## 1
Amino acid sequence: MSIGAGRAEIARYKNTTGACSYAAFHQSFYAYLTNPARLARRRIKVHSSKRDSQRISICSDLGRNSLLNREEDMKKSLVALALFGAFAATAQAQSSVQIYGTIDAGLGKATGSTTAVTKRDNNKLGFKGTEDLGNGLKAIFQLEIRYESDTGTVENTSGVNSRPLFQGQSRVGLQGDFGTVRLGRGLTAYQEVSTSFEPWSGMPTPAGFQTDLTVAGYTSDPLSAPGNSRNRFSNAVFYNTPVFNGFQLNATVAAKEANNNSAVPARAPGNSVTFASGNRAVAANVAPTSTPYSISATYTSTGFAAMAAYERNGLQAKLWSVAASVNPIPELKVMLSIQHQKDDDFKIINTGTKSWVLGANYDVGPGKIRAGYGQKTPDGVVKTKQASLGYDYNLSKRTYVYADISNKKAAVADSINYNVAKSVNYVGIGVHHNF
């Protein structure tokens, strides 16, 4: 067959074999032309009608097989898609993991220091999730890394100061009709609820009150490693009851495990560290002599909230605290907290410290005004007084800029003149973003 005749054959069969695609015919025609037996018998003439019927049969078979294969593939694809959708829906319903965090950076200046890049809030990167175990039972976990936005390093891990990777918290537990039980490291039952009654919401800015006056100078974990955050328990069990008509009970109990504390030498009263109280010696990496624990009770309703708490740390220091907040109008929240610390086992004399903080938050359009005033009265030491004012301006639901100003009068740290108050002013501005 000549090339011209072959082309004519192709054109003719394209028009006469609707069941066969051009590609299928081309495949069969090429196979026919290159068949060795045909080439050996190319002098033998084959009747045109027989050859046509053979080719049409080949195309029909190829077309039918192609359609059957496509139909089978379609069925398999639909089954796979249905199974994938079912598994995805099941996984979606049974478990979820959330990545979240904050980044905060600004400029701050305090009396006697130069302007520096600072932060108003802790920077954190967190992971939390739940898994539905059925019958109302859930498995939960939360991990939280803290870092410095100005250097990109993990928070406070230089020199002798060492904080764990999951400084914020590392807890896993179960949640159900019985409440929530978690194990690991996290804020104590007192520390976790006290931030709701502090005008800066517990943020560790110098303008805030959480790290000093709100806790009457108390620390939850004095036996942790140097530089560690001391408002948490490690090696602990955490329990929260369900909320009953606005009431909830919370408890944290820590194991009597050593946590790499540094040795503390004994000091007589009248020194530059523990001031008028003096202190007894503490050995390095010592376990608590009795179990540290923290309990709190909260009540929340529309326009009113209250809290009462008691905590004992690894050195047997004890803290009582009560607090309340009211909303006389929806935009205004007024709050008051009162604390009393007693540290008889560590300090020698002058073992008590009392404090109180009065604060307010007022929402104005896209902004929030923060204000607070408080006092702390350590036995035998000059009274601490602090007044602060701040403003947040929301740029979006997740981003705001802020400005703070404060004045604090207190005894100078590491000084023997603890009966003389030094005035320190602080000014800070910055931006905060939640993600």
## 2
Amino acid sequence: MQRYSAPYSLHRRSKYAVLPTTAFSTSLCIDALFAITTAPPGMPLTVAILEAVLVELPVATLAAVLALKLLNTGASAPSTRPGPSGPATGS
């Protein structure tokens, strides 16, 4: 049975993990932007800025770095065939 979940792809260092990781990073950045721009002045704006700076943006940065590492290490697609990966040799 093939598994296509993001955590499983990350565990296997699959190239399929790059897209969910990038989407997660992007969504955190967008959430931080909307939280700050829609917060009313005063304490809610202060909380939104602190949450963005201390939580959302650092986690988004870590996710982006992870996606870049997966791209740069040459992560491979999971094999769909059982057995050896090389050509068969016989005499």
## 3
Amino acid sequence: MVARVAGMDVLTVAAVCFRDQTGRVLTVRKRGTDAFMLPGGKLEPGRPRSTARFARSTRSSASR
């Protein structure tokens, strides 16, 4: 979701942090990169922030 704020383009992104019982944090890595990051992404245009979807991408990432 891109919005104009004070004359600047603002891209809204979301991320989530999952920890297991031992304190490990789930991270993901995009193909072709060496960097690990938290699961997340850009919000779909027109969707409110409260409806950000993590479950599908997180299940997909965790199963690999």
## 4
Amino acid sequence: MDPRASFRLFRTGLIGSVVFGLAAGGHLAGGGQLPALSVLAALCAVCLLYTSRCV
């Protein structure tokens, strides 16, 4: 197993959570409401998959 793999997962999770947090914060700051928890979980998974392919 590649020793850098665990750092890639950490970095991907960190970047994904920052992107997701900024998007949610901007949405709330604009007066919107966040969707249901299941929708948020799905969006977070998509964001994590996208950032893992880019990193």
